[in-house]
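Hi all, posting the design record for the shared folder.

TITLE: backbone redesign
STEP: 1 of 1
STRUCTURE INPUT:
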């Protein structure tokens, strides 16, 4: 549709559907009109794709994830449909600001951070590469909490994102599945075969809500299927009047419906909550039941061939119950024998590991697990038994460590072991991360199954993170190297030709200034703070966690401030330090760090004596939409995790793609960024992973002696309780103890000096205008490698055995 047609269509929709006119409509009504026009248009293409899939029955991948951090969908749908430009024009003609209309959409915040956003980027890439691939997740009523800062502290508000109807979803009650919890297992014999039945279970309905995932510049629309727990309408759901009272019955029904109520806000901290295990089984069972049913309908084959048509990728261990649940369906429902079912299962399931932090490894206490899922527990025990037998007989060299490898051990079910044993592929998310898995974390499993292990370095969709978030940079790129890069992001490398081109550098600078002014305006609106758009925009945006070391950043800022107090005329460029970070509600230390950042901001932003050389901005409620505004305006990208701790990172890629220079450690995918751009185009600092390992091994690190011997550190750390923060004197004692008494788990003090040096390099380099631009262009040019299209191509060919479709050239 062209501009005029869109305009007419908006007016018609307002009148017919919303009973209003263009002159009276609110922004929200315009948003509803526009998005329903888009949705209607997608629906017919969606049907076509589904029809094609039905007829051709291609190999399909299902991406199982407890989190999909989708953000807003209107603008990305418009972009992928090639409607973005005409729609923006239509809205402008009608007297509206397109960005204000897009902002009426609530973020779908169904994820915590990196893992959930990765899943969203993967959906975009699968559809854009025309890979038959669908997402299966949970339709949480409440997404990740909304963060407010009140009196310097984080407070959490519920994110009731479904308050208004969600335009993008279609409820599919016809595909409802029934999920059973609890009960008891009875075995009996039938025709000489052992049969199992599960009795007296509590049942809940799983109702899917489908969201279309539109590919860029093609006709493919895949599906994100989100499951919602709802009351069962069958007789089973009614009160039978026997064992329980009516009210107890209602109560237990209610508790089952709470399964899809909210997303757990903990990222990287395993908490053995029964409800979370319920959520995991709920997702896995509804998804698998549907897949098996559809497979039989479409192919007419027995499930013995399931793995020839289907792969299931599990996003971390959260959905690893797919292994015993698929075994259950194949044996108890489809009549396969153990060996047949095991063959199918272990050729269907593939597992991605996203973390090596030990506190994040999922383990469930046996009593909880077996009570909630008695049949699944039986099968898991059998998997464990057979696996241990196999190791004992076939790998005598591992006999002494069987208890370390077992799926069930020390009264716990270890989900990572279940996932490794039950899948045909295990992948890490960056080269370094996969090497650590093979070398240490999963060393023994790697010894047993070397062929299963592989790397798939993460990626991000360049459509959302460059084309959509940064249209000005996109136009600049188009005008110099053409538009092929949109379909072949590696073509961005052609920009290298312009790295020293004065006119290109000037234009890049202007684009950055434009985006910085835009962000400065937003900051002023939200916080009242006026920031200098000529200062260096230095950002650290990610979940708050000890290992990500926001503490290192803010301690450095305090240190810089103390220096400026002593040297008010020092010739260093002004810097704006921008933070965005949510802390898990129960993570005390992380919340203290937020308080420290906000208190430091309070103190430093209001001290006129340093001539506005430092501003600190803590932006509340960091989420996908805020990231889309911050990233294009960023110049320094802080990726400063303790080496060996960040599995990959994906914010590092988004920032690099938008021309920010990385201040980072050799960790996660920073290593691969370095491989591409070279260390001369980044600011690297800090210990390497091997040095840290060495310190751990020898116990050769004492934060206290460093503190005692280093004057600067001493002075700075003392500020934590020496009156710098006035009323907050006692507030930061936990951070103080964390650093000194608990020996600085993440080596903040150890890396401090090297960090300061890297920061000084940044100040110097920024003053060499041409050099900075050149470095920035070099980073953008190499960022094509980090498109999730590359990642998905690798999953498709190396894990899923699905041939990606070669896209046709862009429509003009
Ligand atoms: C059980 C609680 C829990 C919840 C979430 C444990 C672990 C997680 C995730 C694995 C945490 C996560 O998001 N990991 C991040 O995954 C990104 C995508 O692969 C990586 O880029 C990040 O480095 C990694 O921290």
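Okay, here is what came back for every position:
SEQUENCE:
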């Amino acid at each position: 549709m062209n501009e005029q047609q869109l305009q007419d269509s908006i007016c018609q929709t307002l009148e017919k559907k919303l009973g209003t006119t263009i002159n009276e409509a609110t922004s929200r009504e315009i948003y509803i009109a526009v998005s329903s026009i888009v949705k209607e248009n997608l629906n017919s293409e969606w049907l076509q794709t589904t029809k094609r899939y039905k007829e051709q029955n291609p190999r399909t991948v299902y991406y199982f994830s407890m989190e999909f951090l989708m953000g807003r969908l209107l603008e990305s749908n418009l972009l992928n449909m090639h409607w973005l430009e005409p729609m923006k024009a239509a809205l402008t003609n009608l007297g509206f600001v397109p960005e204000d209309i897009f902002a009426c959409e609530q973020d779908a915040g169904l994820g915590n951070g990196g893992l959930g956003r990765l899943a969203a980027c993967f959906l975009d890439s699968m559809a854009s590469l025309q890979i038959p691939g669908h997402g299966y997740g949970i339709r949480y009523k409440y997404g990740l909490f909304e963060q407010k800062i009140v009196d310097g502290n984080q407070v959490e508000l519920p994110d009731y994102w479904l308050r208004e109807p969600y335009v993008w979803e279609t409820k599919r009650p016809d595909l409802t599945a029934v999920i059973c919890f609890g009960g008891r297992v009875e075995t009996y014999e039938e025709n000489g075969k052992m049969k199992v039945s599960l009795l007296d279970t509590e049942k809940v309905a799983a109702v899917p809500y489908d969201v279309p995932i539109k590919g860029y510049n093609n006709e493919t629309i895949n599906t994100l299927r989100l499951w919602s727990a709802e009351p069962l309408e069958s007789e089973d759901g009614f009160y039978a009047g026997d064992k329980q009272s009516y009210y107890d019955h209602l109560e237990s029904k209610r508790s089952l419906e709470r399964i899809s109520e909210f997303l757990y806000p903990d990222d990287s901290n395993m908490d053995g909550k029964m409800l979370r295990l319920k959520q995991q089984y709920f997702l896995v069972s509804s998804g698998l039941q549907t897949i098996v049913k559809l497979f039989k309908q479409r192919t007419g084959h027995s499930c013995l061939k399931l793995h020839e048509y289907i792969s299931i990728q599990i996003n971390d261990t959260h959905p690893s119950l797919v292994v015993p649940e698929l075994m259950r369906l194949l044996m108890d429902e489809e009549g396969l024998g153990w060996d047949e079912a095991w063959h199918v299962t272990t050729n269907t399931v593939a597992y991605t590991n996203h973390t090596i932090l030990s506190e994040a490894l999922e383990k469930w206490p046996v009593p909880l697990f077996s009570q909630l899922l008695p049949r699944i527990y039986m099968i898991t025990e059998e998997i464990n038994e057979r696996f241990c037998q196999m190791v004992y007989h076939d790998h005598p060299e591992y006999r002494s460590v069987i208890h370390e490898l077992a799926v069930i051990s020390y009264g716990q079910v270890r989900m990572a072991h279940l996932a490794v044993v039950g899948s045909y592929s295990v992948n890490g998310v960056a080269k370094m991360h996969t090497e650590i898995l093979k070398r240490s974390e999963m060393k023994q499993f790697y010894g047993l199954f070397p062929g299963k292990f592989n790397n798939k370095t993460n990626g991000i969709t360049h459509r959302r993170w460059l084309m959509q978030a940064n249209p000005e940079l996109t136009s600049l790129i188009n005008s110099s190297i053409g538009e092929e890069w949109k379909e072949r992001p590696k073509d961005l490398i052609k920009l290298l030709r312009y790295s020293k081109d004065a006119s290109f550098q000037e234009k890049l600078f202007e684009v950055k200034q434009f985006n910085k002014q835009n962000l400065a305006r937003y900051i002023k609106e939200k916080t009242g703070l006026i920031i200098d758009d000529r200062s260096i925009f230095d950002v650290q945006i990610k979940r708050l966690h000890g290992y990500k070391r926001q503490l290192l950043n803010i301690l450095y800022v305090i240190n810089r401030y103390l220096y400026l107090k002593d040297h008010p005329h020092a010739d260093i460029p002004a810097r704006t330090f921008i933070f965005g970070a949510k802390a898990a509600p129960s993570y005390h230390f992380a919340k203290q760090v937020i308080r420290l950042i906000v208190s430091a901001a309070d103190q430093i932003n209001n001290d006129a004596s340093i001539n506005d050389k430092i501003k600190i901005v803590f932006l509340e409620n960091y989420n996908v939409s805020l990231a889309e505004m911050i990233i294009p305006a960023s110049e320094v990208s802080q990726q400063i995790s303790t080496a060996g701790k960040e599995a990959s990172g994906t914010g590092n890629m988004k920032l690099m793609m938008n021309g920010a220079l990385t201040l980072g450690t050799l960790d996660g995918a920073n290593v691969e960024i370095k491989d591409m751009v070279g260390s001369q185009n980044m600011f690297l600092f800090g210990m390497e992973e091997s040095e840290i390992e060495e310190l751990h091994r020898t116990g050769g690190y004492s934060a206290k002696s460093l503190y005692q011997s280093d004057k600067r550190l001493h002075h700075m750390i003392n500020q934590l309780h020496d009156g710098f923060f006035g009323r907050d004197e006692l507030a930061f004692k936990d951070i103080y103890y964390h650093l000194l008494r608990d020996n600085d788990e993440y080596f903040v003090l150890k890396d401090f000096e090297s960090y300061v040096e890297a920061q000084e390099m940044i100040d110097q380099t920024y003053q060499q205008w041409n050099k900075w631009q050149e470095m920035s262009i070099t980073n953008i040019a190499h960022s094509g490698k980090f498109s999730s299209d590359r990642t998905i191509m690798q999953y498709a060919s190396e894990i899923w055995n699905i041939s990606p479709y070669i896209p046709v050239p862009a429509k003009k």
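COMMENT: The CA atoms of residues 326 and 345 lie 6 Å apart.
Let me know if anyone wants the other runs.
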